[in-house]
From TrEMBL:
The keyword RNA-binding does not apply. SUPFAM superfamilies: Glyoxalase/Bleomycin resistance protein/Dihydroxybiphenyl dioxygenase. It comes from the Bacteria. Keywords: Dioxygenase, Oxidoreductase. Residues 5-120 form the VOC domain. InterPro entries: Glyas_Bleomycin-R_OHBP_Dase, Glyas_Fos-R_dOase_dom, VOC_core. One of its GO terms (molecular function) is dioxygenase activity. This is Catechol 2,3-dioxygenase.
Length: 134
């Protein structure tokens, strides 16, 4: 067996519209085709690839399932992302990897899922990073 790539993540939400607004308005995903399923939800796309499946309509588990710590996405335009997060009063932490100089930005979705956005080392240092603690 060989793994060829990542297919998608699924997140559970207690509020579908709020969750969609975060991933679409803040992170820039687009909503796309979702097959007719029994549960409510949405499929969010990066380009032509459905990357994030949101499931609603069932209670969030009292205890976290599994051991996944966070979802990481490759991103671009760090300054624009910082501006958008600041506009939405979303707390984040921005780090720079020591060896690669890759920018790493961490934040949380409305239901508490941890998100990592990785930006090229070539991106300029952003301005207005006053909201950098989680």
């Amino acid at each position: 067996m060989a793994i060829d790539g990542m297919n998608h993540f699924t997140v559970l939400t207690s509020n579908l519209e709020q969750c969609k607004a975060f991933y679409i308005d803040v992170l820039g995903f687009t909503e796309g085709y979702r097959p007719p399923l029994a549960s409510s939800g949405a499929w969010l796309y990066a380009g032509n690839q459905p990357i994030l499946h949101i499931m609603a309509g069932r209670p969030l588990p009292a205890q976290a399932q599994g051991i996944i710590d966070h979802m990481a996405f490759t991103a671009s335009d760090l300054q624009s992302v910082i501006n958008t997060l600041n506009q939405h009063n979303i707390k984040y932490e921005l780090r720079r990897q020591k060896d690669s100089q890759t920018w790493q930005l961490f934040c949380y979705d409305p239901d508490g899922a941890k998100i990592e956005l990785d930006f090229s080392a070539n991106e300029p240092e952003p301005k207005g990073i006053s909201n950098t603690t989680l």
